Amino acid sequence: MSERLETCELTLPLGKIKGVKRLSLYDDTYFSFEKIPFAKPPLGELRFKAPEPADPWSGVLDCTQYAEKPTQRNLMTGVIEGTEDCLYLNVYSKQLKSDKPLPVMVYIYGGAFTVGEATRELYGPDYFMAKDVVLVVFNYRVDCLGFLLLKDRSLKVPGNAGLKDQVLALKWVKENISHFNGDSNNITVFGNSAGGVSTHFMMCTEQTKGLFHKAILMSGTVHNYWSDNPREDFAFRLAQQYGFTGDNIDAKVLEHLQGVPARDLVNHNLITPEHRRNGMLFTFGPTVESYVGEDCVVPKPPVEMARDAWSNNFPTMLGGTSFEGLFMYPEVSANLKALDSLSQDPARMVPLEVREVNSEQENLEYGQRLIKAHFGDAPPSSKLFMNILDYYSYNTYWHGYNRTLNSRLAYSKAPTYYYRFDFDSPNFNFYRLKFCGDNIKTGVSHADELSYLFRNSGSWKLEKSSAEYRTIERMIGIWTAFAATSNPNCPEIGNLDWKPSTKDDPELVFNISNDVQIIKLPEYEKLKIWDGIYKPDQLI
């Protein structure tokens, strides 16, 4: 039997919308408005290009169900999903009327810039709705539809259309959120993984200046090497994969690609073994744009953008999980032989951005240094499976966050709060279960903290006495306190006084486990080894 929900109407500058009053998993009421258009459908001539603001509509727009996900190929199953007409957002408000407008939290999803969705299947607002906040979740284009790049300026495809979707969504929030009882002068942007990188890009680009007031970077920043993969001529190769036989002329390539169905376009296979050796995780993603136009988001390398970013004047929270590298379990287990040959090719351990500026001899030495740090005195082999996952925790994740922390300590005048999520549940850490199945039964994987911020389709109602429920309370307490006051200290963490990081004690971190405490970052000593393979001007 379907539930009958009380509906409500709002009038926005572009037209009227109808939403519903919902009940969360823990019986909190809230107001839900989903599938609100913030851009024109990016179809036809608009494919691959910067989004254009949505047109007004007549009548009352039904905003009671969320939009389909953007067109993408599921990373786990390979199934093609979603639709090209995807530029919609959802607004969940605890109260539509109150003495003061509510703090606004805008979430940007992750998914390697290749997948992702703003749906209640993955990002249900239930836990946040225990607090007086407004939560916004939006779609942005992924894969080639969001990140194709062409050099010909006249075609207006310089890259990063997906980031430009994010900019337009943030403009929409700034202009419209007051209609949902949101405080347009207190907006926090947060995101996980590629969403963390996206949040950091939003902090660094001039396009968003003044659109939000603080940020939370979760398991991804522009200092992660994969935030800016060197882009090759993937547009031409993509066109060739779909029957293009002409010369590599951008206008002809674009014309051909605009004629290929979206669901075919994302079903490509362009990454070579050499790309993999160089650490490339996905084909299409953010990059320095091919020219600086008026809507350019990434005009220069992101590490340089971070140094003089407008957001250096506002508070930021930053952190990751204690065993990020479990994310790589499927890939490593599918290619165990590569571990047995690592001793013959130690330079493979060294990030490409380091390799490119050093001699072969230096890279060999750095590779051996990293092997010693992660494998000890034993030669790398498929038997030391967990050691390579430990290496990925640093290479792919923690070293980037640490660089961001040091960048903030060097260039920012505003507080930076550093955290480490280390709560290990046998059955509620959904992302470890997704990546590792039953093969690895402990460890806090990349994205596991999302299990305690958002209800997803696999969640269930917990006993309020459980450690898992207590962790939800703590996470929501910290995240919403930071959104409301720019300070993460809250009743849910007791009497602990979590202070911003300092140059004097950069290794101190707020650790969220069965208990919460301030500790020395357990990863700190290895991170210093990683620092040592970079030239100082490269690091931050």
Describe this structure in words.
By secondary structure, this protein is an alpha/beta fold. The longest helix has 27 residues, at 385-411. It has helices spanning 120-123, 143-147, 161-176, 194-204, 234-241, 250-257, 262-265, 273-277, 302-307, 329-333, 337-340, 352-355, 360-375, 385-411, 430-436, 467-485, 524-531, 536-539, and strands at 7-12, 15-23, 29-37, 60-62, 72-73, 80-81, 88-93, 102-108, 134-138, 182-192, 214-218, 316-321, 416-421, 508-512, 516-520. The model has no long low-confidence stretch (mean pLDDT 95). Strands 1, 2, 3, 4, 7, 8, 9, 10, 11, 12, 13, 14 and 15 form a 13-stranded mixed β-sheet that branches. It has a two-stranded antiparallel ribbon with strand order 5-6. Helices cover 30% and strands 16% of the residues. It contains 18 helices and 15 strands.
How many DSSP-defined strands? 15
Strand content: 15-25%
Oligomer status: single chain
Number of helices: 18
CA-atom Rg in angstroms: 23 Å
Structural class: alpha/beta
Shape: globular
| Euclidean distance between termini CA atoms | 56 Å
Average of per-residue pLDDT values: 95
Report the major sheet: 13 strands, mixed
Uncertain spans? none
Helix content: 25-40%
Keywords:
540 residues; alpha/beta; 13-stranded mixed sheet; 18 helices; 30% helix; 16% strand
Chain-wise SSE layout:
Blueprint: E1 7-12, E2 15-23, E3 29-37, E4 60-62, E5 72-73, E6 80-81, E7 88-93, E8 102-108, H1 120-123, E9 134-138, H2 143-147, H3 161-176, E10 182-192, H4 194-204, E11 214-218, H5 234-241, H6 250-257, H7 262-265, H8 273-277, H9 302-307, E12 316-321, H10 329-333, H11 337-340, H12 352-355, H13 360-375, H14 385-411, E13 416-421, H15 430-436, H16 467-485, E14 508-512, E15 516-520, H17 524-531, H18 536-539
Parallel strand pairs: 2-4, 8-9, 8-10, 10-11, 11-12, 12-13, 13-14
Antiparallel strand pairs: 1-2, 2-3, 3-7, 5-6, 7-9, 14-15
Helix pairs in contact: 5-6, 14-17
